[in-house]
């Protein structure tokens, strides 16, 4: 299924902690095959040695350098990359550029796994961190976008797994057994493709489905 030209935006994929853009190899090829223009970047450093707000500035700089000022785009963030993307949208003006926003297994309400490190980015991803409380205080702004949160109840990196739930937008549960498989499982790829193909409109009610 190719996405119609009139609905096509360039798609920017944002990776998670300890990952590089290579983690999107399968998803990128899948989306390109369906007629999308797909972009990736490497967040540096990728190990949470700096705050997620600093990484979000890299996203902002990339968007400014890569796309014309009037070009709207679609943003897909995996794991930590979803929170980095939220900071870009909610705090760095991305709300004016992004039309479709998808997070995949992102710790919107933190993950207890982040207690295993005192690196700045990990401190920010702990449950009830000041950073997440601030972002969640006006998460309603994401309702201005076509926003979808995709997650699996079996996630061992996002603990509890339902931390990937958020009170705005749509949510889709893809019951795969491992966190990284969320980027390669055919069900996840199909959900991302469908979300990127949706006509732009304001979501009125939170919708939930299981794949």
Can you lay out the helices and strands and say which pair or pack?
Elements: E1 11-14, H1 25-33, E2 38-40, H2 52-66, E3 73-78, H3 80-91, E4 98-104, H4 120-124, H5 130-137, E5 146-151, E6 170-173, H6 186-197, E7 207-210
Parallel strand pairs: 1-2, 1-3, 3-4, 4-5, 5-6, 6-7
Helix pairs in contact: 2-3
Task: Characterise this structure.
The structure is a single chain. This protein is an alpha/beta fold and 211 residues long. It has a single domain, classed as 3-Layer(aba) Sandwich (Rossmann fold), CATH 3.40.50.1820. It has helices spanning 25-33, 52-66, 80-91, 120-124, 130-137, 186-197; strands at residues 11-14, 38-40, 73-78, 98-104, 146-151, 170-173, 207-210. It has a seven-stranded parallel sheet with strand order 2-1-3-4-5-6-7, with helices on both faces. The longest helix has 15 residues, at 52-66. It is globular.
Quick synopsis:
This protein is of the alpha/beta class and 211 residues long. It is built from six helices and seven strands, in the order βαβαβαβααββαβ.
Keywords:
Rossmann fold, 211 residues, seven-stranded parallel beta sheet, alpha/beta
DSSP helix count? 6
Largest sheet: 7 strands, parallel
CATH topology: Rossmann fold
What is the CATH class designation? Alpha Beta
* CATH superfamily annotation: Alpha/Beta hydrolase fold, catalytic domain
How many domains? The number is: 1
Alpha-carbon Rg, integer: 15 Å
Average pLDDT confidence is 93
Order of strands across the main sheet: 2-1-3-4-5-6-7
Helical content band: 25-40%
Task: Give me the secondary-structure category.
Answer: alpha/beta
């Amino acid at each position: 299924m190719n996405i119609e030209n009139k609905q096509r935006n360039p798609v920017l994929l944002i990776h998670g902690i300890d990952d590089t853009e290579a983690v999107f190899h399968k998803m990128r090829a899948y989306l390109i095959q369906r007629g999308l223009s797909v972009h990736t970047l490497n967040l540096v450093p990728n190990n949470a040695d700096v705050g997620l707000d600093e990484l979000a500035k890299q996203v902002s700089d990339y968007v400014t350098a890569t796309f014309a000022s009037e070009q709207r785009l679609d943003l897909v963030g995996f794991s930590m990359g979803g929170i980095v993307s939220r900071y870009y949208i909610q705090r760095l003006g991305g709300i004016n550029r992004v039309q479709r926003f998808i997070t995949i297994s992102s710790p919107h309400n933190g993950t207890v796994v982040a207690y295993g490190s005192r690196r700045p980015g990990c401190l920010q991803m702990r449950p009830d961190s000041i950073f997440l409380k601030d972002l969640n205080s006006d998460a309603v702004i994401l309702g201005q976008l076509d926003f979808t949160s995709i997650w699996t109840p079996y996630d061992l990196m996002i603990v509890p797994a339902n931390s990937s739930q958020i009170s705005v937008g749509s949510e889709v549960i893809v019951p795969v057994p491992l966190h990284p498989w969320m980027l390669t499982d055919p069900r996840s790829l199909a959900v991302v493709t469908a979300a990127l193909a949706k006509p732009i409109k304001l979501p009125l009610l939170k919708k939930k489905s299981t794949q």
